[in-house]
Amino acid sequence: MKPLPDEAWNAWHPADLMQRLGADIHWYVVGGWALDLWHGRQTRNHKDLEFAVLPEDVDRARALLGELAFFSVVDGHIEHLPSSVPPPAHVTQLWGADPKEGCWRVDMMPERGTPATWVYKRDPTLKLPRNDIIRKTAEGLPYLGPAAVLLFKARHRREKDDQDFDLALPRLSASERADLRKWLERLHPDHDWMARL
Nearest CA to 180 among 158, 195, 160? Predict the structure, then answer.
């Protein structure tokens, strides 16, 4: 099966994903949508819908999203991953294609944690209790807390990442600011967001 063009995104809303995945596996929304779930409103357009899932739940997530065909994404190379084949350990992104509609719907990211512990994928020594870092909306939709989302965004500093930081900064609690500053000092010591925290 050939992959769709990179730009063929028509991502679901997080509520659509929750309707399909439910609460029987460990998963949560990440990226820009996670910030918008925290804000309680959509603040900008989102090209994709990224979510993370524990390694042991990847097959279950794929089964629950059975209308999608999944493709591994490694260094810009997109390759079909048959439903009978588990993703290799080095694969950290699986794009879900909707063959009937001819578009990408989700970006699934297997993570390194456990049901009790969240692990930052870019530095596995950064670990936190899962209950402290994963939050839920009033409807029960799980998402990554804002300080952790901004840590991910700090690496690339795209225009949308700076905009997301600017919008989030006034709403961050004192502890969230302290956590983000501590993580930036450790992982991105020259980052100019630190002066604003």
Answer: 195
Residue 145 DSSP one-character state: -
- The owner of tokens 């998402």 is 143
Alpha-helical runs (H) found in 28-173: 31-39, 58-64, 130-133, 146-154, 159-168
Q: What does each of the 197 residues of the chain score in pLDDT, given as a tens digit? A: 899 999 999 999 999 999 999 988 999 999 999 999 999 999 999 999 999 999 999 999 999 999 999 999 999 899 999 988 999 988 999 999 999 999 999 999 999 999 999 999 999 999 999 999 999 999 999 999 999 999 999 998 899 999 999 999 999 999 999 999 999 999 999 999 999 99
Residue where one domain finishes, among candidates 113, 128, 144: 144
Please check whether residues 62 and 139 belong to one and the same domain: yes
Residues 6+ apart with CB under 8 A from 19: none
Which residue type occupies 103?
Answer: C
Q: What is the pTM of this model?
A: 0.95
